[in-house]
Please model this.
Amino acid sequence: MCLAVPGRVLDIGEKDGTRMATVDFGGVQKEVCLEYLPDLQVGEYAIVHVGFALQRLDEESARQTLALFEELGMLQEEFGDPWEQAAAHAEADSPWPFADGPYADGPYAGEATAPQEAQEGRQ
Model:
């Protein structure tokens, strides 16, 4: 899911001719493009979507929204490590997903090959 998340501008600079900022999203810091809000200043809040600051936001609204996103677990979903998230959703004792097929004992076990007619068609 891609959310539009409020964040606080920590610093502003230029990268390859583009105005950029380091923005804090409730403890997670990301680099954000400021081209749509060229007058945004350090300490101000903005709504950020897919790496672009899109709209200035007052501090109280930003804090309330961040608190709600945190409560709902949406900040972790948006900014967390995707590998950690996948591991958290997987069942610890689930069997290998291809338990009934040629790869039953893990990656590449059994080294299944394509049917003979498919192999002949590739020649």
